[in-house]
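ok trying this again, last paste got cut off
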Amino acid sequence: MDEALALRLIALNRAFYQAAGEGFDRTRQSAWPGWRRLLPQLPSVRPLRVLDAGCGNGRLARFLSREGVPLHFTGVDFSPKLLEAASAALGALPGVEWALVEADFMIDAERLPEGSFDFVALFGVLHHTPGAARRAALVRALAARVAPAGVLAFSAWRFDEQPRFRDHILPTPPDMALEAGDALLDWRAEGVHAVRYCHAVSDAELDALVEAALLTPVDAYRADGHPGNLNAYRLLRR
């Protein structure tokens, strides 16, 4: 994808979350059902060092804490509103040391925090990352931050399979040379009207991302939403 277009799409999504961030926080408090399948695969080291790329309002940390996992949690997001919500939520969690970083790692994956982490998560992010090369670079950068015997988990939202989401796809502007699987989705909720860029990551592309990570595949499955298959997961281990 052309770099100028990729940066334009990233800016579009940044504006989207600025407009819809408060509504996202209110309506996205629950853990994803698919996370529970990850628990037996997490390293036994405690506290568990976690890097959550695209942490939003911190609900992954809340889920792990409720499951009794002591954490050193590092969350990264480009939305100040969601990071503010995450800060308020994480401050109330017992047994959790945490840090939040505002960084747009989609522009440059090397903006991710340095370090070695037992669990690296990328949930709800790949579909917002423009361009196949940029998605591969992001996965490689996250894989490089996985500690020995640690795990990397990422998911892809399959909005393209559900009519209720396809109905929100807008016509592509003539000055946007989007790639196959790309779409602009309309959002209207709680008095907010905004547009977001999304990419439907195919199973073939997920397989290519697994190969790019240079880690050992552990699990692949579908979960979440209605009818229970909205996200495609991949779990890898160093």
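PB: full thing came through this time. The chain has a mean pLDDT of 94.
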